[in-house]
Write a structure and sequence with these properties.
122 residues; alpha+beta; five-stranded mixed sheet; 26% strand
Length: 122
């Protein structure tokens, strides 16, 4: 079983905050994907148990990001049916620079429709 959550912020530009997020991902043994560099800032977290994911989300809250929105609370990951395989998110923190790249990752993880609902696209 795996758990995941989705966070949206105004932007993610501070390298100091990204370093804190990276340490938190390693500490809580989560896989994290960030869309950084501009608006919107998007964070996806995945972990082996709900406590890991909730702890990482708490670390994000403490950073007081502008327009912090926990759009999808930590919950059980239920992969969607898809012909595409699942690329495992590497443990720790990974970054992408565009929403399109972030969406591609979500599609490969088989959480495309879940992500689109969370972002308000559908």
């Amino acid at each position: 079983m795996r758990y995941h959550a989705l966070i949206r912020t105004h932007h993610i530009t501070s390298r100091k905050k990204v370093a804190v997020l990276k340490r938190a991902a390693n500490t809580h043994q989560c896989a994290v994907l960030l869309r950084s560099g501009g608006c919107p800032g998007i964070m996806y977290v995945e972990g082996q148990d709900q406590t890991q994911v909730e702890s990482w989300v708490s670390a994000v809250r403490k950073l007081r990001y502008k327009d912090f929105q926990l759009v999808t609370r930590p919950g059980l990951l239920e992969p969607e049916e898809s012909d595409q395989g699942t690329d495992d998110l590497p443990s720790g923190l990974s970054e992408v620079e565009s929403v399109k790249d972030f969406g591609s990752w979500m599609q490969r993880r088989r959480v495309w429709h879940w992500w689109r609902r969370g972002m308000g696209y559908s």
